[in-house]
Amino acid sequence: MDLGIRGRTALVCAASKGLGRACAEALAAEGVNLVLTARRSDLLEQVAASIRQKFSVTVAAASGDITTEAGRAAALSACPRPDILVNNAGGPPVGDWHSFEREQWLAAADSNMVAAIMMIRAVIDGMAERKFGRIINITSAMVKQPHAALSLSVAARIGLTGFTKAIAAQYVGANVTINSLLPEQFETDRLRSNIQKLTAKSGRTLDEEVAASAASSPAKRMGRVEEFGAVCAFYCSAHAGYLTGQNVMLDGGRYPAVF
Fold this sequence. Notes:
The chain has helices at residues 18-29, 41-55, 69-78, 102-130, 151-171, 189-198, 206-215, 225-235, and strands at residues 9-12, 33-36, 59-61, 84-87, 133-138, 176-183, 247-250. It has 259 residues and is of the alpha/beta class. Belongs to the short-chain dehydrogenases/reductases (SDR) family.
């Protein structure tokens, strides 16, 4: 299927690895030009060069922390008029919610809710004027199936989810959509780090814990980042203009409810 977005420009946040990189590569495979952001400039430049060579699209790198004002300014300076925005940022620490202080709750909200809102605010009206826009928020399956150990992430990401649902209907008439992708267990460094922290006292190795976690899924495996990227690309496509304000679970069937 031709997704109808060849020649468009996407701004992809936290794109140097994991789910962000997978989304960038899936869009590039459809002929989308990219501006990538991430904190590590060396790694980001390597990824940009790799995607540029593999897919023959224009790829620019704008290093910076997207959760800061300076990082957002750098990204928007490099890409002030994106057709596609993929919001993404690393999650906050895991642990016992009793142990988190006020500053940690505020930091989580700033990184995983407010940063994305500021990016949306910066680009969405321009998208509406041009009659095309696709905004994807990479959040978490924990938005629909919360886990106490991920309480910082849950609180911040649910806030972002509510905000985007509140405004999505205002823009769909201008062919601008906002949707969220909710990953659970995908093969990323972040997942391995979380598993290691949550099972530190189990007595098993990290690889054993990862294998046990994968086996507990109805799919009997972890998700592949390429699968995630493909879903992102479709939701950014010309064919997805009637689909907005949705939260799409990518969890291998683990979520038990109907809605």
